[in-house]
Amino acid sequence: MDLHEISVQLQAGKARVVKTLVQQAIDEGIPAQEILEKGLLDGMSIIGEKFKNNEVFVPEVLIAARAMNQGVALLKPLLAEAGVKASGKVCIGTVQGDLHDIGKNLVKLMLEGKGLEVIDLGTDVSPETFVKMAVEQNCQIICCSALLTTTMGVMADVVKAAEAAGIRDKVKIMIGGAPVNQAFCDQIGADAYTSDAASAADMAVSLCG
Amino acid sequence: MKMTHKERAIAALTRQIPDHIPTFELEFQLAEEMFGKPLFPPELKPGRIETLSALEKERKIYEMAEYTAYVYKELDYSIIPLMMVGDSDYWDKQGKLPPEFVQYARYLREFTEGKVLLAHHGDGTYSIPDGNDMYEFAYRIADDPEGVCEQAQKMADWAIDRNKKLHEAGVDVLLLCCDYCYNTGPFLSPDMFRQFIQPYLYQIIQAGKADGQYTIKHTDGNIMPILDQLVECEPHALHSLDPMAGVDIREVKRLVGDKVCLCGNVHCAAMQTGTEEDVIASAEYCLTYGKPGGGYIFCTSNVPFKGMPPERYQLILDVWKRMRDY
């Protein structure tokens, strides 16, 4: 079968169709990794690009992600069986004092759409928790999100906590959110700032590479 | 000729040229820092208000109204945002105004001699959902668009009903504060916005206007892709014009300044973390490009929030005083 059709249906958010097509591809003996990459991740990647260009909007991204998850659920045991691993591991959270999670959730979806494994730490995450989880889960990247100007300073504390824990050379720190920018990223010594979720995913892939 | 605050605000809201540019904020969170105590007295908060006798409660509401009038007079606001006093569940769930609020609004009108516009929240459209609600909302849009529209109509009807009660209590201005946009753009696509929000926002605004209320539509974020639809709803004013999302008052004035009054655009993040020069430059920019031809109210792009250095807020008020006269 043509795996491109999975990508197309995923972009349209057709969860049931995607599930059926993925099962069909499995039944035809196509390797799980190939179905994942040429079907599901290809579709999410295109959605991510369109989102970046304001051609699709958040609901379309979430609906596409729902379709992807339906397909991934079928592939997961086969991928594990074949010893296929995620291309990178990221822990993500909204910083301490901030309960906003929309941006963080979008970045998480985009990261997963790039085939990265994501540990979601939720909201109101302390610098110590970011660092502890990055160590325990062996993450290559910490992603910090903030919506409030009053909480963006916590991102600097995450950088300091990573330095204090002696992992700064092993873990990249990415920041994002409405009040932050590249100048702030440079000021606090983080590794990367991106202005939108899709760019964050692209950046994470390059940092994991 | 010198106008009253009310005349000045109405002139701006109706895109005329007042004696000078009015100012206000959706909320003012720096009362304690700038005037010594918060606007909302702790004795009237849930858990404590119930312990007051009727006489004590009335006294506290009177003092709250007196202090509110004092603070906003000092700030020279033309529109005063009212806070909900009394049982908010009574308002939120049953749609009935708590008698304490009615009393507060009455006292406030007395203290301001009816020369200032009183405002309260009055939106009833979908805003950007949080957390898991965002997933549910997106799935419902895909799976049950008719149901989403039905609910939007119920929400609008509910808001219209409540706004009539606010009108009866003396609220002149409806602050429509459901957020629709991120920094990067709207939550919904323009097509979805036209289906699930615009018709209902239009109804709420028109109902308020039919009752003689003024309407200020606020949303954070980059509104440019839906600017035309917001203006089609015919609010008196658009608020926020969020510079952190790239919204430029000069461009918005050029595009729709002949159709709607503009409020905001003074850079809140700069007020928190920028230099004094950044703050002054932002305020001057807004005044320079918002002012021509009237239809402009000076305010921040969000609110003077807790944690913002009060001197930074004072700084933009100083710029406003220097440049506000027509």
UniProtKB/TrEMBL annotation, chain A:
The family database entries (InterPro entries) matched by this protein are listed as: Cbl-bd_cap, Cobalamin-bd, Cobalamin-bd_sf, Met_Synthase/Corrinoid, Meth_synthase_dom
The alphabetized UniProt keywords are: Cobalt, Metal-binding
Gene3D superfamilies from the xrefs? Cobalamin-binding domain, Methionine synthase domain
Q: Which Pfam families match?
A: B12-binding, B12-binding_2
Specify the B12-binding N-terminal domain's residue ranges.
1-87
Question: Which ranges carry the B12-binding domain?
Answer: 87-209
In terms of PANTHER family, this protein maps to:
METHIONINE SYNTHASE
Entry protein name: Corrinoid protein
Automatic annotation (TrEMBL), chain B:
- Database matches in PANTHER family: METHYLCOBAMIDE:COM METHYLTRANSFERASE MTBA
Kindly name one Pfam family recorded for this protein. Answer: URO-D
Q: Which residues form the Uroporphyrinogen decarboxylase (URO-D) domain?
A: 141-320
What Gene3D superfamilies would the database entry show? 3.20.20.210
Q: Spell out the InterPro entries in the cross-references.
A: Methanogen_methyltrans, UROD/MetE-like_sf, Uroporphyrinogen_deCOase
Q: Which organism is it from?
A: Anaeromassilibacillus senegalensis
Name recorded for this polypeptide: Uroporphyrinogen decarboxylase (URO-D) domain-containing protein
